[in-house]
Request: fold
Amino acid sequence: MRRSSPLLRSLSSSSRQHTPQRSFALGLYRTILKQHRRALPAEMRKLGDAYASEEWHRHKAASAEHLQPFFREWVRYLEVLSAAPAHDSEAVESAPLGAALTEEELAAMSAEQRQQLAKLKAEAQRFAAERDAETDEAAAADTILRPEGDRSVNGDRDRVLGP
Reply:
């Protein structure tokens, strides 16, 4: 049997006292949104918040049978997110966020879940492409706007950057 995580125990011990399932769900949801603010850049945060909100609405009237794995997977996600550096730290560029799904996890998904995963993947790839394009544009603008005769920023005193 899988042991529950410290994060799951802390959420469940503090928020299950009033209306157990509802309090736990709201506490978990709020914690996810807080971690999005801490660990994700604004564009990814927007995507993550929208996805979490949509999933919470979909599972609002779900049976306990479906809610247990739903909460377990969101707690796993929260653990990964909690381990990530803050989005404004220098470590964020070198630290990948997330984990690959195993074959067993993919096989256990319903067709609707796989469709939702494909949609999320497409959004993440679109975000990455836009971010890369913005980075490339900023680098090109920096080169174009540098006055002729300026030395390179890497300390190469003999090479003059041109237009």
User: Anything to note?
Assistant: The radius of gyration is 22 Å.
